[in-house]
Sequence to fold (239 residues):
Amino acid sequence: MNRRPCIAPLSISVFYPCYNEEANVEKTTLAALKTLQRISDDFEIIIVDDGSKDRTGEIADRLALEHAQVRAVHNEPNRGYGGALQRGFRESTKSWVFYTDGDGQFDFEEIDKLISMLDKYDIISAYRIDRKDPMMRKINGYCWTTLVNLLFWQRLRDIDCAFKIFPRQLFDEIEMKSSGALIDAEILARAKRRGYSVGQVGVHHYQRTAGEQTGANMGVIFRAFKELFGLWREIHGSK
Ligand SMILES: Nc1nc2c(ncn2[C@@H]2O[C@H](COP(=O)(O)OP(=O)(O)O)[C@@H](O)[C@H]2O)c(=O)[nH]1
Ligand SMILES: [Mg+2]
Fold:
């Protein structure tokens, strides 16, 4: 079975979850448009507004009206990071799907690095070269990646790095269950079971300049562990 669609011409869906990102969503969208207009004649951009309580949804709708390739979808109410990613993958219609965060902490231009590896791997998962987060957050991230690698027999450098590209077909083959931060680990573990190969490459990470980070609160962490052990039981119990 050929898992990898054509790279040239590139057919690509790009989405980013936005939760209370009124200060970032327009900048992120204009950056996405600039990069995609350069690299593809067949692309769509999907802004996933995850039940934001600020003006994110309204700005996303305006951007969709202003730009033919931009679409805005709204999770109402907020369904968490995993729920937002699931929505983005389900809404994507092009051959490849790329996602990143909507908060401006990554540079779209670095998508070139991922695309240049698509002739060798089915999926490309980036890692942050110099992660711009507090030390405690980096230690937690390292421990989480190590634990997930051990549980699912993988060798990934930075599981939660929000800069990945997948063949869209994968999402017809797997069922995603995680509504929280486990989503990245879940998709990669299920893809591995189906024989998808994963390439890795470093990308830069930037400080958040506006809006609030919510990815590390206790509720998010607790839910991630609960979902992690559920996934482990499911995958190893069904062998
Ligand atoms: N934490 C969180 N982020 C969400 C949610 N829905 C969408 N997001 C988006 O997910 C991205 C990452 O969130 P952030 O708080 O910056 O986490 P961090 O980058 O891991 O520190 C941002 O673009 C958020 O707007 C949600 O329910 N919770
Ligand atoms: Mg962030």
Notes: Residues 11-237 form a domain with the Spore Coat Polysaccharide Biosynthesis Protein SpsA; Chain A fold (CATH 3.90.550.10). The longest strand covers residues 11-18. Helices lie at 25-39, 56-66, 80-91, 111-115, 135-152, 170-173, 183-193, 218-237. Residues 218-237 form the longest helix (20 residues).
